[in-house]
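Our consortium's second objective concerns turning raw sequence data into structural hypotheses that experimental partners can test. To show how far this objective has progressed, the report includes one record in full. It was chosen at random from the queue rather than selected for favorable results. The single chain below, 226 residues long, was entered without modification.
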Amino acid sequence: MRILAFMVLGVVLFSGCKKDSPKAPEKVDLIAPAKNSECTPVQSDGDSSSIVRFTWGASDFTESYVLHVTNLTTGTVQSKNTTNTIETLSLTKGTPFSWVVESKNSEITNSTSSDSWLFYNPGSQISHVPFPAELTFPVQGSTAFKDVNGQIELKWSGNDLDDDIESYGVYFSDENPPTTLLRTTDAGVKELTVGVTSNKVYFWKVVTTDAEGNISTSAVSEFKTR
């Protein structure tokens, strides 16, 4: 009986000392600037810039956030560490941007990223450049399975504040960057079937053109076939 009592006591003590595993920071929900919109700056910051306010929801198991804002014209990234859920940055007027928020805590090495939203910081321009197309499938860096005909369907989405996109030029190649124009589609067509070979890496991008002749180019995405 004494042995059994000691065993039960040991189990109780062990259970009492056991620590819960640290929890990863959760993904935040972005609030403003709204997705695919023209933002409303807080104030002007000289002739060429204005102050833009960013707002997102708090996430669980998070100690701090990192706001990343990318100038889609130059590719320049501005980052800001904060414990708040509201921050401001000075951004170039008349320019499209993307923004994303990382959630972090000191117990977990990896951070958790939010969705990426696009917005336009207004300037004196009358016509807006289209947002760069978002390449949605195959997912960047993924392995895609070809169908029985040896084909894969490329899919993307596009937005323009003027709603005057005219065409998408799809560039596709096994070389990076892809320089071969596979096809130009009308604004209403946002998917294209391509022939591929197994166990090969492919690269693709989409160039968007609107009625005013404004052009934007997506990032290059890659995937491997199986």
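The partners drew two points from this record. Residues 134-225 form a domain with the Immunoglobulin-like fold (CATH 2.60.40.10). The CA atoms of residues 200 and 225 lie 5 Å apart. Both points have been shared with the crystallography group to help prioritize constructs.
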